[in-house]
Amino acid sequence: MEALKTYSKAAISALVNHRVGEIKLGEQVQAFSSWEELKYSTATFVLLGIPEDIGVRANHGIAGAATAWAPALIALLNLQSNDFLRAKELMVLGHFVFKDPEFNTVTDLENAVTQIDEQVYPVIQKIIAAGKTPIIIGGGHNNAYPILKGCAKAFKKAVDVLNIDAHADLRPTRGRHSGNGFSYALKDGFLANYSIFGLHQNYNNSAILAEITGNPNVNAVFFDDLLKSEGTYQDALQPLLEGLGNETGLEIDMDCIENVLSSAFTPSGFQINDIRRIILHSKKKFAYMHVCEGATQLADGRESAATAKTIAYLISDFIKAQFALKQNALKKPL
User: Fold this and answer.
1) Residue 244, domain extent
2) Which of 3, 51, 74, 137 has its CA 20 to 30 Å from the CA of residue 295?
3) What whole-number distance in Å separates Cα of residue 97 and Cα of residue 238?
4) Looking at the whole model, is its pTM more than 0.90?
5) What's the domain count of the chain?
């Protein structure tokens, strides 16, 4: 885990725009001290950044996913800490620092992704083993694999996933990249049931569609069908959720959201408020949340300052919704 850079309280405070009469999230969030003390922390959620786009480039995508972490963290830390969002429920762990391979060939990039896997999964395993809920800001969707591996090792069983995404990321298990994280997780026994919500018919090839149809553990709802439906997105999502077990991860690929900057930017997709409603209305306890593929700047020159605030909204919604579930569970009679 030598690639992990943890944050002190002072480092977190330096990212906050302090204002008299207000308390920002970053002024009260918890800072990491040690793995031993993590399990005794009162924080429920642990925030982790994986700012890399090596996996995206290995999948022939446009670089830029590495740029989301820092501005998204600043946007999140400068939210108000109040009765709606309790800062002490969140610990900011830190982020990984990964160097680019010496050469930019696909093989070198794929080998680098494998090395990233080996750094990421033990950290996720430790967070889960401490009884906490990781919230991960990517980075490429290749990181779904080490996240699932870490969860499975901590829970000592395969976990389930709900992936809100325009792409299934079920490409063949030949060389690691952002397009086959779930393929590898299924193959290696870390992923049991895989549900994808919002797939685009135009951007999933025939082999992937055959895998979805032929694998009883993979289920999907296409965005194209949602456009033709009279029902709500929450109603369409419910059957997928009912097929998932207790230890379930939530994956949100930013390329499913209309006009949000990402390697696979889309002009047609969910609105940001659609995703917010899904998170806020969900009664499902999630083992982790992974927001990936967003960018504030792409290698082709496109930029967007809105991506950071979009991620901050999704994370704050997740904390609110999951904290409410936790509180409701505590109120239930034995």
Assistant:
1) 4-328
2) 3
3) 38
4) yes
5) 1
